[in-house]
Amino acid sequence: MVGIVSDFEWNPDTYLPEMFAEVPGYEEFEQAVAAATDDLELDSVLELGTGTGETALRVLARHPRARWTGVDGSEAMLGRARERLPGGTHLRLARLEEPLPEGPFDLVVSALAVHHLRGDAKRDLFRRVAAVMRPGGRFVLGDFVVPERPEDAVIEADPAMDFPSSVPEQLAWLDEAGFDADATYVRPDLAVLVATTRTR
């Protein structure tokens, strides 16, 4: 899970094996995030928590002409992403609590990053995401979530850096921010939320 908020520094050499070990269904999850963009015509994309570029590679395979902007709190992870992503990709060292790049963006996408924010910070982020999107744009948020039944929690949360919220909480915050949103579950504790900005 991409290090955005805490001072923990992921190692880009071990990141992917760690994801497969810690996140059951990781590959299915990444494919679900990318597939949530299939029906879109994309010009500009913002990714929150680029990491080593795992999600970006999958989305760009579907939308090779999209202009990609990514932010992450780890320079080491961004260094690996720069090696892997196409030329012209704009990557910026920034935490999710900081101002977002100026839009407007057709798509904002994030995978396994936003759960590093506490609830109030997620709520604020969703408002700021809405502000940099085109009317009718899409926000695809794939993340580790609090399952409906505690016994369904398989992903182990680190209390120092992981602050997952439930899907209903996040759908409510997205609604407040001006999105129409729905969610699908890859696993009970792993979900993909798809939100569309309401036209003004």
Instruction: Choose one word for the global shape.
Output: globular
Mean pLDDT across the residues is 91
Output the radius of gyration. Answer: 15 Å
From the N-terminal CA to the C-terminal CA, the straight-line distance is 35 Å
Number of helices: 6
Structural class: alpha/beta
Tell me the series of helices and strands, N- to C-terminal. HHEHEHEEHEHEE
CATH architecture: 3-Layer(aba) Sandwich
Oligomer: single chain
Whole-number total of structural domains:
1
Give the CATH H-level superfamily: Vaccinia Virus protein VP39
CATH classification, class level: Alpha Beta
Instruction: Give the strand content.
Output: 25-35%
Query: What about the largest sheet?
Result: 7 strands, mixed
Task: Report on the architecture of this protein.
The protein is of the alpha/beta class. The protein has a single domain (15-197), classed as Vaccinia Virus protein VP39 (Rossmann fold, 3-Layer(aba) Sandwich), CATH 3.40.50. It has helices spanning 15-22, 26-35, 54-62, 75-84, 119-131, 167-177; strands at 44-48, 67-72, 90-93, 105-111, 133-144, 179-187, 190-197. It has a 7-stranded mixed beta sheet with strand order 3-2-1-4-5-7-6, with helices on both faces. Helix 5 links the parallel strand 4 (105-111) and strand 5 (133-144).
Itemize the secondary structure elements and their pairings.
Elements: H1 15-22, H2 26-35, E1 44-48, H3 54-62, E2 67-72, H4 75-84, E3 90-93, E4 105-111, H5 119-131, E5 133-144, H6 167-177, E6 179-187, E7 190-197
Parallel strand pairs: 1-2, 1-4, 2-3, 4-5
Antiparallel strand pairs: 5-7, 6-7
